[in-house]
Amino acid sequence: MNSKDLNQIGFSVVGAAIEVHKTLGPGLLESIYQKAMEVELKSRKHIVKTEVLVPVVYKEEVIANDLRVDLLVDDAVIIELKAVSEIHPKMQSQLLTYLRLTDLKLGYLINFHEVKLLDGLQRFVNNFDRAV
């Protein structure tokens, strides 16, 4: 997938998040936003997978298989959702690790707790320039 395609998916993800936040507002549980995002992204004709397992491979051996990505859009973009008063660096590191472990190029950390959603939206890239 090339960078233009990834950016189009990303644009759609941001639009979906804005629509969900505009409709539901802040203050709900993360699981509610996850389901709403799934519905909204599917209505925008995306393939959405939830709670996708991410294997941890060490020296060609799977040593753990209990990490889960909240949403995977079009098998290309990872979305991690939060509904917390503050995003901690650990949450950002988690998304970067998921990108690295899956070798995917684009991810979003979205905190629905913010009054203005764009204040809670962060975009992360993993070797985006190598996207083909």
Descriptive account of the structure:
Helix 1 packs across helix 2 (30-43). The mean pLDDT is 94. Helices cover 38% and strands 31% of the residues. It contains three helices and five strands; from the N terminus they run ααβββαββ. The chain has one domain. The chain has a five-stranded mixed sheet. It has helices at residues 3-24, 30-43, 89-102, and strands spanning 48-58, 61-73, 77-82, 106-111, 121-125. It is an alpha+beta fold and 132 residues long. The radius of gyration is 14 Å and the shape is globular.
Terminal CA distance: 5 Å
Percentage of residues in helical conformation: 25-40%
Q: How would you describe the oligomerization state of the chains in this entry? A: single chain
Task: State the shape.
Answer: globular
- What's the count of strands? 5
Strands in their spatial order, largest beta sheet: 1-2-3-4-5
H/E series, N to C? HHEEEHEE
The overall pLDDT, averaged over residues, is 94
> Given the helix and strand composition, which structural class is it?
alpha+beta
How many helical elements?
3
Largest sheet entry: 5 strands, mixed
Poorly predicted sequence stretches spanning 5 or more consecutive residues = none
Residue share in β-strands: 25-35%
Radius of gyration: 14 Å
Number of domains: 1
